[in-house]
Amino acid sequence: MTIPKDYSYQESPSAFVNHVGKIYHKRSTAADGGEEVWTALEIQDHHVNTWGFCHGAVMSSLAEMGTAAPAWDPDGPPVVAIEMNMQFIRAPKLGQLLEVCGTVSQRTRSLVFCQARAYADGELVFTASSIQKILKA
Questions:
Q1: The CATH number of the domain where 14 resides is what?
Q2: Could you tell me if residue 71 is inside a domain?
Q3: Pairing mode, strands 79-88 and 35-42
Q4: What is the pLDDT of residue 33?
Q5: DSSP states along 68-114
Q6: Fewer Cβ atoms within 10 A, N terminus or C terminus of the chain?
Q7: How far is residue 35 CA from its own chain's centroid?
Q8: Is 91 inside a domain boundary?
Q9: Along the chain (137 residues), what's the average pLDDT of each consecutive run of 10 residues?
Q10: How crowded is residue 4: how many other Cβ atoms within 10 Å of its Cβ?
Q11: Cα gap 135→80, rounded to integer Å
């Protein structure tokens, strides 16, 4: 697959993320002026179940990545999810691009509260929210 329009790709330092597949990223500004961090994955053979739909574990992984991405400052300490909620609405199919848009609603000194919406071909696939813990060295 070629890199989707406006996205970039850089191999992750995480072996797990690279095992999932090529995860693409982009940043944009929302209508309200806030930052949106987008994460995308092309659904391939190893992501689908017997019926050709994206496996829930893959969507859950993208939900965690999609909520962690806006919480993490590349120049700061790492963040980890300490709570995540997810609502599955439909499942992407083989060959579709799963795009997750993550935003931050609140940031404290030690926690970041995030939301994500996921789409495939413009249709809502899932919503998620998480609390990310900022790890101190």
A1: 3.10.129.10
A2: yes
A3: unpaired
A4: 87
A5: HHHH--TTS--EEEEEEEEEE----BTTPEEEEEEEEEEE-SSEEEE
A6: C
A7: 14
A8: yes
A9: 87 92 94 92 96 96 96 91 98 97 96 98 97 92
A10: 16
A11: 7
